[in-house]
Each structure stands twice: as C-alpha cells, then as structure tokens.
Amino acid sequence: MSQAPYDPRAVANKLLDMAALVMEKQATITPLALQKLLYFVHARYLATTGKPAVKGAFEAWQYGPVHPTVYKAFSDFGKNPITSRAKAQNLLTGEERELATPEDWQLNRAIMSVLLNVGHLPAGRLVDLSHAENGPWHFIWEKVRKGEAVTRQIPDEVTQQRGSRMFMIAHHEQSDSPYGEEVPPQH
Q: Which helix (H) or strand (E) holds 16?
C-alpha cells in the first residue's frame, strides 16, 4: 500500500467513483466541480492527518484552486460531466495504463465527508466556497494581484492555516441540509 501524498489523478478518480456510489447527481460532476471537490478533500485530509492528500500543488486560478495535473487529465470534458477516469501515460511509448487506487481509510473518510456535505452543490457554489474571504485561494490570489507573489501555488501551510474559512460559509448556509451539520475540515 502506498502512502500519501497520492497521484492527484488517482484521488480524483477515487472521488468520482465514490460519488457514483453515494450521490444522486454523480453524472453532473464537471471538471470545474471536480477541482473544487478535490481541493476540499485535500484540505480535509491535510487538517486531519497533517499530510497532503495529493502530490504537487494546487494553484490559485480565476475560478478557485486548480491542480494542473488534474486539469490536464480532465480538460477534454470542458463544461460537460466527466464520464471516464484519468489514466497514466508512458512518456516514451505513449501507452496508457490504469492508475493505482489509493487505499487509505483517512482519504476515504475525507472524500465521503466532502461529498456528503458539499458534493451536491452546483459548481458555481463550490467556486464561491473556494473563494471565501481570507481563505487559501483568496489569500494567494490577493498576493498575486498585488505583485507580492511570483507563483500562484497554494502552499499546504496556507491551506492548513486558512482552510476552515472555506467551510464556515457552507456550514452557515447548510443548516437545512439532509447531510447533517459536519462540514470539512473540522477544526
């Protein structure tokens, strides 16, 4: 069994597979929604384990946190629902292969928590959550806008320190949610 951090495409695939099992609207997960859900899973996992869920870094893009590797893997879907899973490709031969599925109960728990609490929200609402004032994305976006940062990468430390701000809004507005009161990450 491998240990975190995991290939971000494999975590995205796992998120999509789990969504297909537990959500009525699983067929509506678009690349935009996937990016936000994946970032929320990463934040939840980071908050509970102290380790990043995925390799590489999320970046502050216009519509919220984006993992470039996952963006590239699912960009062919555009604004349409995702209907297949990412694969790995041998750079020398071009041969594709299935990605190993991470088997990690804490990752499963983070994915399930995110899906049950915010997975049913439309992509635009997920963007709103990721844009929470003083949250990780907002903090980096403002630094870039002011010329105080040379990269759009959202460091894991920033996600740990500011991640709960993304979910305060969700918690406040989801009091009538059929999924309960827990909203990731819990601090």
A: helix 8-22
